[in-house]
Design goal:
This protein has 132 residues and is α/β, with parallel strands linked by helices. It has a single domain, classed as Phosphotransferase system, mannose-type IIA component (Rossmann fold, 3-Layer(aba) Sandwich). Helices cover 48% and strands 17% of the residues. α2 crosses α3. It is globular and about 50 Å long.
């Protein structure tokens, strides 16, 4: 089963994880690693590699980050050539829920693209959606 790693600035990933657990209960092979303002970025980068190794049971790891170009993104990107991993930015709750529901049915590369669509589809103008 594809492992999923949430990487964000601050406690954002912990909030997403809490939201996921409200919907699905405790989920296996889902981890989060926050980066705080006083953290050592090189240590964080190495922790990302350790989490990837821990989560990969042969099906790869989908890394979901908050912001393109930020330190969590850069830490993930630095390992993509060395591990069976994909990285998608702009993490949101619909993306994570879809990743968890779909991961048994598709390889990590396809799962990454599928999650992008789920994230985009989860963003709507409520007034327009309701016809108001």
């Amino acid at each position: 089963m594809t492992g999923i790693l949430l990487l964000t600035h601050g406690r954002f990933c912990e909030g997403i994880l809490e939201g996921v657990e409200m919907f699905m209960g405790e989920v296996e092979k889902l981890e989060c690693l926050k980066l705080c303002s006083d953290d050592d970025v090189m240590l964080y980068r190495n922790q990302v590699a350790e989490y990837i190794k821990k989560l990969d049971d042969g099906d790869g790891v989908l890394i979901l980050t908050d912001l393109m170009g930020g330190s969590p993104y850069n830490a993930a990107a630095s390992w993509l050539n060395q591990f069976s991993a994909e990285c998608v930015t702009g993490v949101n709750l619909p993306m994570v829920l879809e990743a968890l529901e779909s991961r048994p049915n598709m390889p990590v590369q396809e799962l990454a693209e599928h999650c992008i669509k789920a994230a985009i589809d989860g963003i709507v103008n409520v007034k327009k959606h309701l016809g108001l």
